[in-house]
Amino acid sequence: MSLLEDDLSCPVCTDVFREPVLLSCGHSFCRQCINDHWTASGSRSCPVCRQLSPQEPLSNLGLRNACETYLKERRSEKQRDDEPKCHIHGEKLQLFCKIDEMPICSQCKKGAHRYHKTQTLQQSVRQRKEKLKAALCSAEKTMSSLKNGTTQDAEVSRYIQFQTLQTEKMLKEEFKKLHQFLKKEEEGRIAVLNREEKDKRGRINSIIQGRIRSLSDMIREVEEEIKEDDIDFLQNYTSMMSRIECALLEPMLCSESLIDVPKHLGNLKYKVWKNMKDVCPYYPLALNPNTAPPCFSVSDDLTSVTSCVHQRDNTNPLYRNCMVLGNVGYGDGVHTFTVEVGNSRHWTVGVCLEPLSLVYGLKRDGDLYHLLTSQIMFKMKANPKAVRVKVEDYYDLWFRRWRKVTFFDAKTDCRFAEMSRVPLGRRLLPFVIPGERAGPLRVVPADVTLTHEQTEQKLSFIQRYRVCFLFGFGFVMVCFLYYYGDFDTGNTMSDRANESVSYL
After folding, report:
1. Both 185 and 295 in a single domain?
2. Structural domain count, the chain
3. Up-side HSE of residue 134: CA atoms within 13 Å toward CB?
4. Is the pTM above the cut of 0.85?
């Protein structure tokens, strides 16, 4: 502790004076310290000289100013000691390197940062504080927009709610159709069962009525013959017993007389599902409305898309494309989908790599057809009403595996365009683009679907027998070299034999 700090310290608390007061004896103390001392001792004596001070102590303004000045200088000195310094040169960091984004000292400026752009540390701090304030203003505006519900997040939230309501409505309508179909199917099958019951019970009732009439006639005849005289009765006894026994015989009924239960319940669910396929077609591709721009309208069943003249309400705030993508991506194997284009003269169909990069599609613009990602343009004599797109794997001459995209006229099954050397390893997403003010593009339901196992068998045929092909080719080459090598060797040996004979 320095001498100056000793002079400015309270004798009671030994700390720098806080609100110093002066007693009548001339000694100074902190106001709180002298009050606490007097309260504890019970007398108003000076803690130093024990002299009584009947008057109230006076504020020592000069001493208070001196203490405040001393404390201020001590804080400044402490701040200077706590300032970070260059860990290399030990000097105060006064500059800021704009290249390395770090504070430096004057020695660093002369050395490693000689050719770097620098500015004073205060200027750098001021500029960055201004940038932070601007960023904070943007953050405050964003927060205000979030509270007011005017940001894109709020739009997405409202659109999700709209999608949920629309989807729920469509689900109810579709299941209502299914319920109606099942109800109609149930009523029809119960009606068939009731008709069969009526028919077969009518036959049994006819047999019963016939037997009743037959037995009634037989009983009446036998009763009359019983009344005859004894001789006639005995002569007719055998025939009467035969008639009674024949009348009592049960008719021979087979299982066909009963309800044909297997016809009604056998594979019932499958039969209903088979009939349901007529009203519930399978579409190999469903259009994803989340990828449709505001100028396109996707049907409720996700099977067709039309270009709109006016922008739709409640549009998707997250759309990023100018096309409508399919809901499935195609990997390795054979994949096919058909799009009905009708008489539209402006449309585009095809596939694109995921994520959206290269596009392998066919575009019609009036009478011209254009293969995307290439400069090939052509015309067709008969314009297709439906285009089938087929994606499949193939091997080139060097047994390298690729994919190709082929376009067919779905009606004639005629191939009219093809794009090869499509890379593997990334999925291909189907897409459609309807032209402006043109008819809708519709996905055609599939009649036959190919199972995964069949697909793998068709795809892996060449791959499985590739080794056989290579082995066969190698075997032919070895035989070829062996044959011609042996022929040349034979000629050489005969020539040498002739030379030896001549020598002898």
Report:
1. no
2. 5
3. 6
4. no
